[in-house]
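User: structure tokens for this one?
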Amino acid sequence: MTQPTAPSRSTLLATASSVVAGYNAWSLSSVLAPRSPTCTHEILPHSLGLPPMNNDQYGTYFSSNVPLFRNFHVTVHQSVVDVGARKVVMQASSTAETDIGPYANEYVLVIEMGQDGKQAEKVVEWVDSAYSVTFLGRLRQEIERKKRDEGGGGDQKL
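Assistant:
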């Protein structure tokens, strides 16, 4: 019995690049397109308190973030491909516009592909946790303030 051949370096890199392209499109369908039906996504470090997510769970998580950011863009600075393990590791950064000003974060993405290398099976996303907690906390406070301002403050009729 012969062993299946490993996907090529270029196939693995193309699949990982399509994962990043999904974020640059900033739509749920684009983010999920290069993932297998059984793909999992984990956002680390664990101190952020986010559990590993399947596609449906990650879709809910991602969709809740879409309205918070405009012109979201990911830039890959370097990539390392391990053909035998079917993994691509990328150092990346992102920028976006928000209601409280510019957003910029740093990431390390570890993307593991399936047997043929054409779909992501597992995405592990390391974020700058200190920046994320501080920025997202401020952003959520601003959103809550806007909701309060829109929901009240007018004259009430009895």
